[in-house]
Specification:
Shape: globular
Bound molecules: iron/sulfur cluster
CATH class: Alpha Beta
Radius of gyration: 16 Å
Number of strands: 5
Structural class: alpha+beta
Helix content: 40-55%
Number of helices: 6
Mean pLDDT: 88
Distance between the termini: 36 Å
Largest sheet: 5 strands, mixed
Low-confidence stretches: none
Length: 163
């Protein structure tokens, strides 16, 4: 995988390519929703070791069960499940490239939802394709056009796009 990629960037791109373009340039704002997300991470799974950071990864937490390593991605809701899944696939692929076998779980504590995610051949091809798309989009000199969507109202870049 391209070393410029991160799991967070993959997630942002799949939610909104314009947001990924800003984030790639380290233009970041915190709004109430982002702070709520951080609080949720702190309050959920209290006994786990959380926020494991690496070169391109930022795992919410990891847990070993019956000899299998599971890495978790904790989200506020199921609204952007595909983006969360591909973020997790990115991490699983990144770990595999370094000789670490793991499975993933997406957890939405507020909805008591947990989904198991495994790195299949199909997902590996998909993350390769998405990774190429992400780099192509974020390396452009101008951001992708803003597309008015429901999520824009809650987005921390709202004023950059719409004011
Ligand atoms: S306000 Fe909308 S278009 Fe702009 S970055 Fe956020 S989600 Fe994307």
């Amino acid at each position: 995988m391209d070393e410029r990629l991160t799991g967070g960037l993959v997630h942002e791109y799949l939610v909104c390519p314009r947001a990924a373009w800003y984030s790639y340039r380290h233009i970041r704002f915190e709004n109430e929703l982002l702070l709520l997300g951080k609080m949720l991470h702190e309050k959920s799974y209290k006994r786990e070791v959380k926020n494991i950071f690496g070169e391109s990864i930022s795992l919410d937490f990891a847990r070993r069960e019956d000899g299998t390593l599971y890495i978790y991605e904790v989200k506020k809701s199921r609204a952007m499940l595909y983006a969360a899944k591909m973020q997790l696939i990115f991490y699983l692929r990144w770990l595999k490239e370094r000789g670490v076998e793991a499975h993933g779980r997406i957890a939405v504590p507020t909805e008591k939802y947990v989904e198991e995610v495994r790195l299949t051949e199909k997902y590996e091809e998909e993350i390769e394709r998405i990774g190429r798309e992400v780099i192509e989009a974020v390396e452009k000199s101008k951001p992708p056009k803003a597309k008015g969507r429901k999520i824009c109202k809650k987005c921390s870049y709202h004023d950059f796009c719409w004011v």
